[in-house]
Amino acid sequence: MLYDWSLASANTPFAIQIEFTNDLATRAYQWLQKLDRTKVLHLGAASYVVPSSEPKMDTSLWVQYYHSMSWNSYGEFIDWLNSVRLVDFSSLTPPLFCSCKYGLKEYSCIHSLGLIMMWDHRKVPQALGIRRGKGRPKKVKLALTKD
Ligand SMILES: [Zn+2]
Predict the structure, then answer these.
(1) Full residue range of the structural domain in which residue 47 is found
(2) Cα(83) to centroid(ligand 1), Å
(3) Are 52 and 82 within 8 A, CB to CB?
(4) How far is the CA of 24 from the centre of ligand 1 (A)?
(5) Does a structural domain hold residue 101?
(6) Do residues 134 and 125 touch, judged by C-beta distance below 8 A?
């Protein structure tokens, strides 16, 4: 047993990068299709603000509160807190930071992955992207010829 244990770290080393599962990629792509891209705001450095699933306020108003920090009540603060997700790309490579519960726990969520897709840094899953139709691709005709 001790022998197995001593070899375990050599055979299965620590993960040094996050694996995005296809399921997450699919959900991130779906999220991206519904996302109003004008609501994605650059907060500063490598930080971005994206609307949450149930926003109580617009992202631009959210940023105003972010700078002023002038909430009138705890309830108002909670509404503000839950209105957006804060995504941070300052580490350049995964793990990426997102303030949603999945981002905090698993370092990979639809928001961070969705933004990466939006910037074309990561390919859309094949099953969801534009696929070629059935059969052979159409033969490309010479220019200036008639059918
Ligand atoms: Zn997230």
Answers:
(1) 36-123
(2) 12
(3) yes
(4) 11
(5) yes
(6) no
